[in-house]
Amino acid sequence: MIVKNPVLKGFHPDPSIIRVEDDYYIATSTFEWWPGVSIHHSRDLVHWELLTYPLSRISQLDLRGVGPSQGIWAPCLTYHHGIYYLVYTVVRSFYCNMYDTNNFMVMADNILGPWSEPIALNNFGFDPSLFHDDDGRKYMVSMVTDHRVPKKYAGRLVLQEYSSEKKCMIGQPREIYAAKDIFLEGPHILKRNGYYYLLSADTGTGEGHGETIQRSSSIWGPYEMYRPKNIHRTSDTEAFSILTTRHHPDYPIQKAGHCDLVEAKDGSWYCVYLMGRPLKQRNPDDALRFPGCRRYPLGRETAIARMEWTPDGWLQLANGTNLPDLETEISGHEPHLFLSKPVRDDFDSEILDLEFQSLRIPLDESFLSLNVRPGYLRLFGREGLASLFAQSLIARRWTSFHFRAAAKVAFEPTVFKQMAGLICMYDHENYLYLHITHDEDIGRCISVLKAENKNYSYPVGFIAIEDGEVQLEVEVHEEKLQFYYKTEKRNKQKIGTSMDCSFMSDEACNQGWFTGAMVGMCCQDLTGSRLYADFDWFDYENLMCSSFEKI
User: I need a surface site. Which of 213, 239, 294, 319 has the fewest CB within 10 A?
Assistant: First the structure.
């Protein structure tokens, strides 16, 4: 079989993969979106379905107050002697001198749960990874943050033993990597033929991203870095990446790195890695951050590459280079497809579809109901879109550069502080919000609120509409977005002209730049009355792709 990358489209970064008998599972980061940690399932490494979120109780995960692109970072999923282990970081302070990076572990004897309450681990840095050694001992490796100015090293990795009996870290943590030039993160340890292999992401998570590999005969090191002769480097400070796209700016895949490995049942090896697909649009040259950088509205996605071991015991891409292929050959598997989801969600179930996530906390009955009005999703108006605490908002990922989304909503606001509708957003400072509201001069109306790095505007003004349900729709084609609406008395109407939506993107936002664009439904009532909106249905449909997307 041939699989086209990415295999998990849209915002699915930092993949961690395991195989349990005939089943493969990938865990990816969810940041400020709740529930925490997406787990996808496959039986052929080609077709994947969203299966579960292990952090699904407020006792496990409460992200109130965390900023954009904080929260859950880089989960590591492992399996040993019938138990699933998940370690992860909860980032509560970022874009500051002293990061708060709290590392935890949960366990389950079934991938579907229930998963345990979190066990606190060490907090030296983010990207924790658990390794199960042959003798039954367990170790956690992670990168180390450094608040000192200047930092003593560009990058460090630390290793510490974990006690299953005591359910805590034991012994002293020991540094196993420290370098003044090459920054490493996202480490994973693999043991093979007497060597411990240390696989790590290098050079950040932008377009310079890559992956290195080291090995040692002792888990504590010292580790030797693989330095193959065919790896092109432009300076002595550049990493020896076995996988990267940094030297190929025109390649459809960019940002490749942050890998994890899996051995298939037939003995073949694969890595999953994060990647991004850029738009042609770039940040302005005077942008506050990342001036001139390309924009990535789909965020960082998950791809797969075939790997091979060299005769002298090193790991490299099977194509013999360090540039990952756009398509990967998968051997030894029969195709295993999953049922495709319908375009329309009629809200006939008593639980939300797994694709929908909320911000920071679960939405209990004071936020959301699928039972009060059967066949409708009721959202009770809560805090504003800038809130880091209690928003009535559910959304799903953009997975294509070409899509349409729509919702039909019943909402009768009486003041301008009450709003409900369809939102495209990256974070709480960057969104385009098509909503119904009330204006004291024209009554019930529709408008669009644009937020771009806290610059707010209403680019289409306010359009009066009659009572009754309203269909709200958005269509996106690469950097262009067009809103529409329809009522019982009016056919589908275009709202204004198309807008540039590329600002809802990695590198374009002043705070968050680790997630991806989302589309969904929300309701605000800034009077405190909690006026509700009833959504009859929600559509999401990827449209025919252009040549831009054929990878």
Answer: 319
